[in-house]
C-alpha cells in the first residue's frame, strides 16, 4: 500500500529566514547569505500493508512531520522512492480548508473537493456526514458562527465518513464533548477494522499503544526501531524516563495485579487475567502471593478473558486484535496459535459446552466470532457482524440458558439465538442510562448480576446490581456495590465451586468473593486487595 | 506535458469549480446589492473619471465614455486577478501543508473567479455601448481572441507573482507601486495622441496597451485590427504564460519550506 525505500530529505535553509526582497538583496550584496544543510530524514525504508494502523513516535524534530508530508505527497524526497496506492485523507487541523463565510453545507463540498472527492460521491455521502456531525439544524449557517467544537466535528466527519484508503492523523484531536469523543473514537475503530490504513502521529504514547498495531520510532531522521507497538513504546518510554524509573525496584509489578479482568478455574489451576499488566498468570491455590504464580504469557496486549474446553486455552489479545491459543502439556501450557481477522478489540471469550464451540466478541467492530477445536487446532468457524449492536462498544457476552446475551452497549441487553447459529435477535431489554456501560452479566440462582463501568455518556460510574427480571431493570434493581465493599470498578463475575468471584479494576484492583445461599449473600472475602496501582504497575501499563 | 495538464484539469475541475464558487460567494455574501456590485463597480469608476477627464479630452476622443470604460474594465481584470493570485499560496499555507493538491490550482482559480467578475464588467460595458447608440458588428467576435490572450497573459503574471510572493513577502508592496506606474503608462483615460514620440515607443512594450488597443479598435471603429495587433497580443500572452509556468514549476517544490 505504502512503500518507502531509502528516502532521504535534505533542506537547504538560510541561517536567517529571509522573507523580504530588500533583506535578500542587502545580504546578497554584502555576502552575508549563508546556508546550512539540514538532514530531516536519512535513508528511511519501510512498507505499510493495507489495513495496518501505524504510529509514528519520536521527539520533536525527529522527522515525523516530514515523513507524513512525504507520504502524502506534499514534499518530494531528495533521494529515494515513495510508492503510495489509494487516496489519502488527512485530518485537517481546526478550520484548515474551511471558509468561515460559507455555510456548513457549502463547506462540506469545498472541503470534500480539496480532499479529492467527486461531486457525485459527496452528494451520496452528504446526509451521512451531516448526521454524524450532528449539525442538522445549522446546515445553512455560515460557520463563522460555529463554536470551535462544532467546526471540529464537521472536519472530523468529512475526513472520516468518506472512507479514505489512507487516513493521516497528526496529533489526535479531542473532538467535541465527551459524547462526540466517544463516537469519534468508535468511528476511528470502525475505519481501522474496515481496512483503512491509518498513520498517526501523537505525543501521547498511551494513545499510540492502544490504537496502533505497529509503531515506527524516529530519532534524528532515522528509524531507531520499528515493530510491535508494545515493544517499541516500551523501549521508547524506558529511554524517556531513564533516570526516574531506574530508582524503582525492578519488576515489582509482578507482585501485584492491575485491573484483573477475570479469575477462572481451569482443571486444577486458578487463572487470573491481569489486564493492565498485559499478562495472564496461574496457580493451583488462591491464597499464595501473586509473585509466586506462574506466568502463562506476558507478551499480550490488554487481555480481558480466557476460556477453555479442557484441552486448549483461548485468550483474547485485545490490543493486538487477535486471540492466542495455548495447549496443555502435562502440568504446563504451551503456546500454539495466534488467530487474527476476528474483528477489532476482541474483549471476551466464552466456551459453550453443549456445542463444543468458543464464542468471542470484538468490542469495537461488533463482530461475533465462533472458534472450533479441530483435533487440537483452532479454526475460525464464523465471524459475523451483528447489525443490531449498532456501533456500540460491547464489552461482554454471556451464555445463559443456551442463549447469548450481549451486555449493554447499544442501550439494551440483547439476546441472540444460538440454536441454529444464526444469532438472530430474539429478545431485548432496555437499560436505564446509569447502567448502560456494562461489563458483565451472569445469572446465579434466581438473580441476574450486572457489573457496570460507565453511564450512557461514557463517564465512569461503577455499579454492581442484581435483579430477578431483566424487564424490570428500568424500574427497579438492588444495588450491591456498598454491601460488597467495592472501591473500584466491578468487572467480571465467575462461579468457581461454591463461591462467586468478582474482579475489581481501574482505580482499585482487587478480587472479591462471596457465597450465595438462597439468594442471600454470605461470607464476603477479599483475596487480593491491591488497591491503587503503584509506579511500576503504571509504567508497565504504559503511561508516561 | 499538455496531456498531463488536461488530465489534471479534468481530475480537479470539481475542486476548481468549488474554489471559484467560494471566491464568488464570499465576495458578496454580506452585501445587499450582491452580484450587482460587479456591474456597478466599473460603471461608478467610469462616471467619476468621466466627470473629471471628459473636459480635458472631450474634443480628442469620440465616444469618450466607451473609450474610458473599455480601458477600465480590461485593466481592472488584470490588476484584480494578479493581486488576488499573488497572495493565494501564502493564504492557503495550512492546506498546502496538509493536502496534496496541484498548487497551480490556487492562482488559477483566482484568475478564473476574477474572470467571472470581468464578464459582469463586460456586460456593463455592453450596456454603455448600447446606451450610447453604437452599433455592434460581427467584428466583435474577434474580441474573444483578445480576451483569450489577456487570460493567458494574466495567468502567467499570476503564477509568477504567487510564487515570488512565497519567498519575498514585500513583493506585494512593490507590486502595488508597479501597478500605479503601470496604470499611468497605459492609455486608459487619456488618448495616446497626447504622448510625446519617445513615450509611444515605450508604449509598444506595454502588453496591456496592446490588449486594450485591440479591443478598443473593435468596439470604437467596428473593424478588425490589423495582423500586427494580433501577433503582438498572442506574443505577449505566450511569453508571459510560458515564463509564469516555468517560474512556478521550478519553485513550487520549495514553497512548503517557506510557508
Automatic annotation (TrEMBL), chain B:
InterPro entries in the cross-refs: ABC2_TM, ABC2_TM_bact-type, ABC_2_transport
GO molecular function, one term: ABC-type transporter activity
Annotated Gene Ontology cellular component terms: ATP-binding cassette (ABC) transporter complex
Record GO biological process: lipopolysaccharide transport
Location of the protein in the cell: Cell inner membrane; Cell membrane
Highest taxon listed in the record's lineage: Bacteria
Alphabetically ordered keywords of this record: Cell inner membrane, Cell membrane, Membrane, Transmembrane, Transmembrane helix, Transport
The keyword DNA repair appears for this protein: no
Membrane topology reported for the UniProt record: Multi-pass membrane protein
Annotated ABC transmembrane type-2 domain residues: 33-251
First-listed, main subcellular location of the protein, grouped into a coarse class: membrane
Transmembrane residue ranges: 32-52, 64-83, 104-129, 141-161, 173-190, 229-248
Family: Belongs to the ABC-2 integral membrane protein family.
PANTHER family xrefs: INNER MEMBRANE TRANSPORT PERMEASE, TRANSPORT PERMEASE PROTEIN
Protein known as: Transport permease protein
Source organism of this protein record: Paenibacillus etheri
